[in-house]
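Q: Is it fine to ask for two folds in a single conversation?
A: Yes, each is treated on its own. Send the first.
Q: Here.
A: Result:
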Amino acid sequence: MNRRRFLYDLSMFSGGLALAGSGLMRRVAAFEQDGDLSKFRAFGYGELVPTASKNTGETILSLPKGFEYNVLGRVKDTMSDGRPTPPLHDGQWAFRVGRELRIVRNHEVTNGHIPREGAGIGSKNHYDEGAGGGTTTLVIDPKTNSVIRDFVSLSGTSTNCAGGPTPWGSWITCEETTLGAAIRTTARGQKRGGFSKPHGYCFEVPAAANSEVVPVPLKAMGRFEHEAVAVDRKTGIVYQTEDFSTSGLYRFLPNKKGKLAEGGKLQMLAVKGRPQFDTRTGQTVGAKLETYWVNIDKPDPEEADLEPNVVHKEGFEKGGCTFARLEGCDIDAKGTVYFTATSGGDKKGGQIWSYQPTGRDIGILTLVFESPDQKVLHMPDNICLMPKSRRIMICEDSDYAGQQSINHLRILTEDGKVADLAQNISKEFPRSEFCGSVFSPDGSTMFVNLQLAGVTLAITGDWSKFRA
């Protein structure tokens, strides 16, 4: 896709975002003349300035004037259950449980991809004692954005990357690995695997749980390198992304709505009339692709121990389409799913897609945005929809080889502009990605993690003052 084609196609916005108007066309024409990418930048909340944390005084973020943040849930801090806070904070969600505000948070711990004695982050109910991933739950005081209590809520899983909330008040946490008992040997001779249990599953954690839950792998939902999920409130269908170089978009049709452990059917997205369609490059922003779903007959293959994308291969052989590293996803009230392909696009800077069901087994796939340059958007990862708007909050996980990693929280507007909300300026962890962006149920606070720094940040400000 050349520059002229990309910018022209920005005028065709669809997939639930507002259609761009004549203003965007004027920006396209201007860009044709001078190549100024700033014409595709939104004002947002204004210029970012280094900002000290309210509660600790340390300067981790640049934010717009008038915005502030608290640091909470830091790695190694002792939690209320006496356990140390695990590292590598990742995907999370905020829930209202009675009168409490709770966050269920992932920890993407890999243990070097091998089992380690005593790795479980909890004290009981480990799925696999040699695996160090899982979830913690934080009970937050919404008036002060401070932690009232916190504890391990899932232990013994591996590489818990993202996930998604359910309409019935739970968090689905996803393992981004399929390692199991078998031993894999990498090209560099590194040994991986040897676990006592197979990995590569989703697990459900009720937000109301007050201690470690008994881990139940949701095997019918598939064994692959999971990233995130989004649940349709009306149908109970669970959409799932896969973080692999050749990945699929999946949906899980539960046998019983809200009862995921009772099984169901796994399917992978395919483009009508274009079997094995490759979305990774050469795509047109705004073009509508008619889609359908192909059945996955072996959602839990033993071969996944050694072949992490074996589920995708089955779907691909049946005509399913391929994406580049699918990561974050979220769903709106109308059932439209938005998801990111973090390294997709001709510039490998990332794509944002939408899937809109139009019938029981059919829908429309739309490329909502493709980054024309890393200065505009730099490898989108986790996303969430901003309350009372059609804007998308994007966590960057910049990973361009040989280039300086500068990660932002970005905002994609309805007309295809990108604004900045925050920049990681941590001196100790300057390359840390943002992840786990989520708004509190009342929309007043946005919680987000800096993964390598091992902190959760609570950002507040006047969210109504956004300017496109």
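Q: Second one now.
A: Result:
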Amino acid sequence: MKFNSLIPELSVSNFEKSLEFYTKIIGFKIAYQREESKFAFLSLQRAQIMIEQVNNTWKTGVLKHPFGRGINFQILVSHIDLILNSLKTHKYPLFSKPQEKWRRQNNKLIGQKEFLIQDPDGYLLRFAESLGTKPL
């Protein structure tokens, strides 16, 4: 298994609920798991994250819902519609509806179709698929 250079590890309040959300609703696969630690390493296409039941190992302050205030995790996928359909099937609410975004990178625009959701602990997840590039 090849590890990305940056892999977020999310502290979660209910490991089983979060694992079900990430695997059954979003479509992440369990690369490996340590059940005794309530830990899982998850992957979705080229994205990797870890989830672990809240413990005192990483505690830097009081955790209060929504977790991860001030950060969103962009997860690039080949097609966001697969995830959107699953969210709809599971009646899971969107934080922001799908939309096209074009952002400047030097002398060109990079496009994405994206939407945001919050996981069970409130971490903000931005799923995006590439729309390519175009000149300014």
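Q: Anything structural to flag on that second result?
A: Two points. DSSP finds two helices and eight strands in the chain. The radius of gyration is 16 Å.
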